[in-house]
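Human: I'm a chemist; would you kindly supply sequence and structure tokens for a protein?

Assistant:
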Amino acid sequence: MMIREYKSEDREAIERCIFEFHEGERVINPHYWVSSENIAKPYFDYLTKKTTEGDGKIFVVEIDDKVVGYVAVRIETEDSPRVVQKKRGYVSNIVVLKDFQGKVLGGALLKRAEEFSKENSATYIYLDVTINKPAVGFYHNQGYIEQSVYMEKKLNE
């Protein structure tokens, strides 16, 4: 296993990860995720733009020279006088292909995102995860705790 910074030649492999993840998420929340076989390319462009704008990085995990997952992390700065956390990392995406899950790869990617955040003077790191998913237990095992609950309501019904 090797974790390294994303290179342009990794694009196709990351798009494969995006597509697999998106299809799984769409089954769980069809009211939220668009139905499109062609979502990976535009989402990859969006992801790299947001990561770059947020002083972030994309890291990939390789097994036998094959990219099987990635994490996107960016640094957020808060200037509100109300908060203590002035700089924190935000994990916008972490994906490991289904065939490679359960092999400590996700934990290694998350650790790299945490290291990157520390290297950039962040004092905290956070992420979002859909409730009632196995990933919640994974994040608990990595030392993450719930700090807020995202709530939504469909309008005009």
Q: What stands out?
A: The radius of gyration is 16 Å. The mean pLDDT is 91. Residues 51 and 74 are 6 Å apart (CA to CA).
